[in-house]
Amino acid sequence: MKNIVIVIPTDGEATGLIERGLEVVVCGVGMAQCAAVTARVLAEKEPDLVILAGIAGAYTNEVAVGETVIVRSERVGDLMPRYQQTYLSCGPMPDGYKIVHSTTVNTPGCAGVEGDDVYAEIENMEGAAFFAVCQQFDVQALEIRTISNRVGEPITSENLKLAVARLSEDVARIFELLCV
């Protein structure tokens, strides 16, 4: 079996995976927390693959609330363009999921809309930092996100519950496929 570690931002997002018997590491919300915890996980556990899983907001109607997607690339949306770097997924791309580009932001809704230099279909608060650390350690990385809301709209409790449940189902399914 491959040594696969799942990193997830919050306890709420982790609960369904823990109930399914999967070990997860809660990293906290935001780039700094995610980078620090991911680096610690890579140093201590020496995984073959690290999965970052969590919820995300969608900029476009191309992805639906409750839909799980695989992130192909990340950029930090609130950096000046001359400092931008695109981080590419360096892990397996599971079949059956939409592949998207994502923008990592410090404040939701501040970047990534069509026409910006950092256009993406979704946004989150950890992805670019996660990929940057995994690149430095030369470890395969996969990011899985489930859509909880449209960017600029509040996350309703109903949509949050739907997104977290779907995230747990899909991450568990993908984990089993990758462990074979």
Layout: helices, strands, pairs:
Blueprint: E1 4-8, H1 11-19, E2 24-26, H2 31-45, E3 49-58, E4 68-76, E5 87-88, E6 98-104, E7 122-124, H3 127-137, E8 140-150, H4 157-179
Parallel strand pairs: 1-2, 1-3, 3-8, 4-6, 6-7
Antiparallel strand pairs: 3-7, 4-5, 4-8
Helix pairs in contact: 1-4, 2-3
Task: Give an overview in words.
The chain is of the alpha/beta class. The chain has one domain (4-179): Nucleoside phosphorylase domain (Rossmann fold, 3-Layer(aba) Sandwich). The chain has helices at residues 11-19, 31-45, 127-137, 157-179; strands at 4-8, 24-26, 49-58, 68-76, 87-88, 98-104, 122-124, 140-150. The protein has a five-stranded mixed β-barrel with strand order 3-7-6-4-8. α1 (11-19) packs across α4. The protein is globular, with a radius of gyration of 15 Å.
Features:
180 residues, alpha/beta, Rossmann fold, 4 helices, 8 strands, 28% strand, globular
